[in-house]
Amino acid sequence: MAIAAEFLPKEYGYVVLVLVFYCFLNLWMGAQVGGARKRYNVPYPTLYAIESENKDAKLFNCVQRGHQNSLENMPMYFILMILGGMKHPCICTVLGLLYNVTRYFYFKGYSTGDPMKRLTIGKYGFLGLFGLMICTISFGVTLIRA
């Protein structure tokens, strides 16, 4: 731990905690998909239900899609948090919390079965990602100039 403490600001711990919070959010979303599988009778390994075979296909697919979209964006979110947080841990913490909260509402809105409801609050997640990109660019430029 002494090695990490030598080059990471102590506030970087907040970045780590926000990422762990997202992991719990992701596990919760996965559990919601599992519940939807039972509720809408969509067995494994079926990824998406077919509307001609299942009257609740759209409802299940919206729950599944809300989680899948979060998984698709997770690698970018994590790398931006990890790298940008090395120089701007407090800013990245706030931006990460914004992203986490909007991901929750994105998922909840999508899970209603009306895909447009994912955007009510969920659309603001891109502000968090854009801010994280700026922090990561700043970190990269600092490394190049050092």
Describe the structure in your own words.
The structure is a single chain. The protein is an all-alpha fold. The protein has one domain (10-138): Four Helix Bundle (Hemerythrin (Met), subunit A) (Up-down Bundle). Helix content is 77%, strand content 0%. It contains 6 helices and no strands. Helix 2 runs antiparallel to helix 3 (57-87), helix 3 runs antiparallel to helix 4 (89-110) and helix 3 runs parallel beside helix 6 (125-145). The two termini are 25 Å apart. The model has no long low-confidence stretch (mean pLDDT 96).
Q: In percent terms, what proportion of residues is strand?
A: under 5%
- Report the span from N to C terminus: 25 Å
Q: Report the helical percentage.
A: over 70%
Largest sheet: none
Structural class: mainly alpha
Order of secondary-structure elements: HHHHHH
The assigned CATH architecture is: Up-down Bundle
Overall geometry comes to elongated
Q: Which value, in Å, is the CA radius of gyration?
A: 18 Å
The low-confidence parts are none
As for the CATH topology, it is Four Helix Bundle (Hemerythrin (Met), subunit A)
- By CATH, the superfamily comes out as Membrane associated eicosanoid/glutathione metabolism-like domain
Enzyme class: lyase
Catalytic activity: leukotriene C4 = leukotriene A4 + glutathione; 15-deoxy-Delta(12,14)-prostaglandin J2 + glutathione = 15-deoxy-Delta(12,14)-prostaglandin J2-S-(R)-glutathione
Pfam families: MAPEG
Organism: Arabis nemorensis
